[in-house]
Q: What sequence folds into this?
């Protein structure tokens, strides 16, 4: 999306229950979400006119708001329908959707019980989170200096705006050194995730992925685990040490934006996208388009 100014795109945004012109979807500079990060969001993709796992995304949207101590002033059914309507309003068949909820401007202090909760949903065309040519051969990851904090210090299972500050710092640092993204460790020094996607490794035909005990258990992550099990690929969720990187042959990332993206390098450790990565890429593409490669009996 380089070169696109998101405040100047065409179309409409669903904003507090009605559609407004894209350029008119504005908030005041003194809103609590901006100053105190009291905001939650979702990232969803539509394929062939259908939003993949829409209900699951909306459930997490509401749960994230609950973690941050506020209530979304619409039902889940209403938000589901608003997402569908937004996609249609934008004339999109393939696209990315961003529901977001935040505390407003009635109180400008840490305490904000009286603030109105606002909700908006935007949709736009977003073919691939990573450069398509680079994605096919595998992206390169740096190792971040920032770490995912202890779950006792943050609402780590919420998709909350404030949790992404260290992700932006990590990604900027990686890009400055010629990498595409960055691998983040957690507060214990264990492998956690990339800046906006979960990570998987392959070793002797077995899929290994970090236990999401202090970071988001992504919906795409859950989908890929299910797809692997359909293929009778063993999946091991566990704590993974950094020095284990040398023992893995394949690596890939998963996320609604990233989908399934092969990794060719992590800070000097090389990987070769092979059979399991390619199979799960193909299976995920089939799954999101409603034609599962292997159907559940």
A:
């Amino acid at each position: 999306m380089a070169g696109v100014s998101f405040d100047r795109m065409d179309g409409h945004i669903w904003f507090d229950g009605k559609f407004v012109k894209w350029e008119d979807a504005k908030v005041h500079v003194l809103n609590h979400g901006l100053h105190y990060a009291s905001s939650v969001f979702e990232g969803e993709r539509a394929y062939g006119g259908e939003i993949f796992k829409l209900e699951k995304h909306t459930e997490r949207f509401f749960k994230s708001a609950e973690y941050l101590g506020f209530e979304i002033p619409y039902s889940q059914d209403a938000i589901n329908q608003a997402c569908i309507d937004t996609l249609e309003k934008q004339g999109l068949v393939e696209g990315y959707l961003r529901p977001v909820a935040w505390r407003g401007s009635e109180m400008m202090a840490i305490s904000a019980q009286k603030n109105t909760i606002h909700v908006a949903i935007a949709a736009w065309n977003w073919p691939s989170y990573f450069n398509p040519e680079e994605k096919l051969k595998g992206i390169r990851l740096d190792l971040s200096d920032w770490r995912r904090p202890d779950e006792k210090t943050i609402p780590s299972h919420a998709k909350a705006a404030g949790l992404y500050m260290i992700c932006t710092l990590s990604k900027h640092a990686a890009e400055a050194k010629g990498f595409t993204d960055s691998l983040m460790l957690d507060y214990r020094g264990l492998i956690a995730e990339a800046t906006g996607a979960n990570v998987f490794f392959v070793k002797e035909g077995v899929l290994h992925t970090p236990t999401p005990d202090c970071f988001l258990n992504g919906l795409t992550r859950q989908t890929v685990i299910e797809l692997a099990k359909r293929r009778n690929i063993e999946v091991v969720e566990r704590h993974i040490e950094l020095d284990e990187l040398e023992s893995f042959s394949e690596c890939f990332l998963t996320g609604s934006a990233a989908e399934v993206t092969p990794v060719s390098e992590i800070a000097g450790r090389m990987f070769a996208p092979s059979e399991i990565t390619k199979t799960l890429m193909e299976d995920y593409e089939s799954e999101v388009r409603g034609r599962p490669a292997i159907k559940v009996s």
About this structure: The first helix runs from residue 32 to 36. The domain at 132-288 is CATH 3.20.10.10 (D-amino Acid Aminotransferase; Chain A, domain 2). The helical segments are 32-36, 54-67, 76-89, 132-137, 165-176, 219-230, 275-288.
